TrEMBL record:
This is Heme-degrading monooxygenase HmoA. Pfam families: ABM (PF03992). Residues 2-90 form the ABM domain. GO terms for molecular function: monooxygenase activity. It comes from Alkalicoccus daliensis. The keyword Oxidoreductase applies.
Amino acid sequence: MYTVFSTFDVPPEKSEEVISIYQNRSHSVDEATGFVDFFLLQNEKRPGEITVQLLFDTKDNYLAWVRGEDFKRIHELEKKYPDQDLASIIPKVSQHKVVAR
Protein backbone atom coordinates (compact mmCIF):
# COMPACT_ATOMS: atom_id res chain seq x y z
CA MET A 1 0.00 0.00 0.00
CA TYR A 2 1.06 3.57 -0.68
CA THR A 3 -0.42 6.75 0.76
CA VAL A 4 0.03 10.40 -0.12
CA PHE A 5 -0.84 13.41 2.01
CA SER A 6 -1.34 16.87 0.48
CA THR A 7 -1.66 19.40 3.28
CA PHE A 8 -2.49 23.05 2.76
CA ASP A 9 -3.48 26.02 4.85
CA VAL A 10 -6.50 28.11 3.93
CA PRO A 11 -7.88 31.11 5.77
CA PRO A 12 -10.05 29.56 8.52
CA GLU A 13 -13.12 31.42 7.23
CA LYS A 14 -12.70 29.62 3.88
CA SER A 15 -12.23 26.11 5.27
CA GLU A 16 -15.92 25.19 4.84
CA GLU A 17 -15.79 26.33 1.22
CA VAL A 18 -12.78 24.10 0.56
CA ILE A 19 -14.41 21.16 2.33
CA SER A 20 -17.49 21.62 0.16
CA ILE A 21 -15.36 21.59 -3.00
CA TYR A 22 -13.85 18.24 -2.01
CA GLN A 23 -17.19 16.82 -0.89
CA ASN A 24 -18.40 17.52 -4.43
CA ARG A 25 -15.20 16.35 -6.15
CA SER A 26 -15.26 14.65 -9.54
CA HIS A 27 -14.26 11.22 -8.19
CA SER A 28 -12.15 10.62 -11.31
CA VAL A 29 -9.25 9.38 -9.16
CA ASP A 30 -11.59 6.65 -7.91
CA GLU A 31 -11.35 5.06 -11.36
CA ALA A 32 -7.54 5.06 -11.43
CA THR A 33 -5.82 1.70 -11.51
CA GLY A 34 -4.86 0.70 -7.98
CA PHE A 35 -6.86 3.45 -6.24
CA VAL A 36 -8.01 2.30 -2.79
CA ASP A 37 -9.44 5.28 -0.91
CA PHE A 38 -9.70 9.04 -0.49
CA PHE A 39 -9.92 10.98 2.78
CA LEU A 40 -10.31 14.68 3.45
CA LEU A 41 -8.94 15.60 6.87
CA GLN A 42 -9.37 18.82 8.84
CA ASN A 43 -7.07 19.62 11.73
CA GLU A 44 -9.20 19.97 14.87
CA LYS A 45 -6.97 22.64 16.44
CA ARG A 46 -6.24 24.53 13.19
CA PRO A 47 -9.42 24.37 11.06
CA GLY A 48 -7.67 26.07 8.15
CA GLU A 49 -5.26 23.14 7.82
CA ILE A 50 -6.79 20.70 5.36
CA THR A 51 -5.21 17.43 4.21
CA VAL A 52 -6.13 15.27 1.26
CA GLN A 53 -5.07 11.65 1.74
CA LEU A 54 -4.99 9.23 -1.16
CA LEU A 55 -4.40 5.52 -0.74
CA PHE A 56 -3.18 3.38 -3.63
CA ASP A 57 -2.23 -0.28 -3.76
CA THR A 58 1.29 0.51 -5.08
CA LYS A 59 3.59 3.46 -5.61
CA ASP A 60 3.75 2.64 -9.32
CA ASN A 61 -0.04 2.94 -9.68
CA TYR A 62 -0.02 6.25 -7.81
CA LEU A 63 2.75 7.59 -10.06
CA ALA A 64 0.89 6.40 -13.17
CA TRP A 65 -2.16 8.39 -12.07
CA VAL A 66 -0.08 11.51 -11.28
CA ARG A 67 1.52 11.34 -14.73
CA GLY A 68 -1.81 10.78 -16.47
CA GLU A 69 -4.12 13.17 -18.27
CA ASP A 70 -6.88 13.04 -15.63
CA PHE A 71 -4.54 14.33 -12.92
CA LYS A 72 -3.30 17.13 -15.17
CA ARG A 73 -6.85 18.12 -16.13
CA ILE A 74 -8.04 18.27 -12.51
CA HIS A 75 -5.09 20.36 -11.38
CA GLU A 76 -5.44 22.76 -14.31
CA LEU A 77 -9.05 23.37 -13.22
CA GLU A 78 -7.83 24.21 -9.72
CA LYS A 79 -5.62 26.98 -11.13
CA LYS A 80 -8.71 28.55 -12.72
CA TYR A 81 -10.73 28.62 -9.49
CA PRO A 82 -12.38 32.07 -9.14
CA ASP A 83 -11.06 32.67 -5.61
CA GLN A 84 -7.42 33.43 -6.35
CA ASP A 85 -6.48 33.13 -2.65
CA LEU A 86 -7.49 29.47 -2.84
CA ALA A 87 -6.23 28.88 -6.39
CA SER A 88 -2.72 30.01 -5.49
CA ILE A 89 -2.26 27.65 -2.52
CA ILE A 90 0.53 25.12 -2.96
CA PRO A 91 0.18 22.04 -0.76
CA LYS A 92 2.93 20.32 1.16
CA VAL A 93 3.02 16.77 -0.23
CA SER A 94 4.41 13.77 1.59
CA GLN A 95 4.46 10.21 0.26
CA HIS A 96 4.61 7.08 2.40
CA LYS A 97 4.70 3.36 1.91
CA VAL A 98 2.47 1.52 4.35
CA VAL A 99 4.67 -0.80 6.39
CA ALA A 100 2.09 -2.21 8.84
CA ARG A 101 -1.67 -2.40 9.18
